[in-house]
Design goal:
- The chain is α/β, with parallel strands linked by helices.
- The protein has a single domain, classed as Divalent-metal-dependent TIM barrel enzymes (TIM Barrel, Alpha-Beta Barrel), CATH 3.20.20.150.
- It has 9 helices and 10 strands.
- The strands form 2 sheets. The protein has an 8-stranded parallel beta sheet with strand order 1-10-7-6-5-4-3-2. The protein has a two-stranded antiparallel ribbon with strand order 8-9.
Length: about 280
């Protein structure tokens, strides 16, 4: 299993970036540049990652390929295709995005996100992106979100079936699917269900935590690892069982200091549990 950070941390060169990640105990990374960067710089990042034994886990697309705005949607399609090509070129485990929203915010919650027409748009957009990029070495994946398709493991399986492309796979963020009291209180069983059904398709995983608020009505809050109520050892064990080389990427923290603190905490906690990272 390979621990990494979604943040590249502050650095002045690709070699400093890779050395810093390696020194801190990371064995996977997200590439910190996109398809618009200089080719020589991209090669330096990939060479530095290889030199320090860092798996490139993810290339992020992070845009809205089903936007109701034509210009936004067309630009997002281009970005997704080019980011997937980039992931394929550098041998990343996956290119990751969200399925998309039907509102102004690219990852926002809208009623229109959850309709039959939107499902069909999502399926078509994923097919079109994969067909245009034609990847041979990597996969296009969707990160689960609380308010857009797919809303659970069974729905993700249906999405895989409907998309019907060999190079479509899964990015696992079970934490984004903790959206009901049942899934929170019985999260270990829910984690098991997710990995049992989707395990063979999972290319990369995010790592964080979820806290349930005590106020009305129902409030879930994403937190740093250890500041919520989920069994992270269970999650890591399931990820390792699915693939001993599975990346676990710590994400959504504010600044380098927070990432370093979380990384140290996770290494200590997993080490005490006998989980090798």
């Amino acid at each position: 299993m390979r621990l990494g950070l979604s943040s590249p941390l502050e650095h002045k060169s690709p070699w400093e970036w890779a050395e810093k990640m390696h020194r801190m105990g990371c064995t996977s990374v997200n590439i910190p540049v996109d398809y618009t960067c200089d080719r020589a710089l991209l090669e330096q990042y990939t060479e530095a990652a290889k030199e320090y034994g860092l798996m490139i886990a993810e290339v992020g697309a992070w845009c809205n390929p089903i936007s109701p705005d034509d210009k936004v949607r067309e630009a997002a399609f281009t970005r997704c295709v080019e980011q997937l090509k980039l992931a394929d070129k550098i041998g990343a485990r996956c290119c990751v995005n969200v399925s998309g929203s039907r509102g102004e915010r690219w990852d926002g919650p809208y009623k229109e996100n959850l309709t039959k027409d939107t499902w069909e748009l999502v399926v078509k957009s994923i097919r079109d992106i994969i067909d245009a990029a034609d990847p041979k070495n990597t996969y296009y994946t969707i990160e689960p979100m609380p308010w857009m398709y797919p809303m659970g493991p069974d729905e993700y399986l249906k999405l895989i079936h409907d998309v019907d492309r060999e190079r479509f796979a899964v990015h696992m963020d079970v934490f984004n699917w903790i959206t009901t009291p049942e899934r929170y209180f019985y999260h270990e069983e829910f984690m098991e269900e997710c990995f049992r059904k989707l395990g063979p398709y999972i290319r990369s995983c995010h790592l964080k935590d979820v806290a349930l608020g005590q106020e009305f009505t129902l409030q879930f809050r994403e937190t740093a690892c250890g500041r919520g109520g989920l069994n992270l050892e269970k999650y890591a064990g399931l990820a390792r069982k699915a693939d001993p080389d599975m990346p676990l990427i710590i994400e959504h923290l504010d600044g380098d200091e927070a990432y370093l603190e979380s990384l140290s905490y996770v290494k200590l906690r997993f080490g005490r549990a006998g989980i090798e990272i």
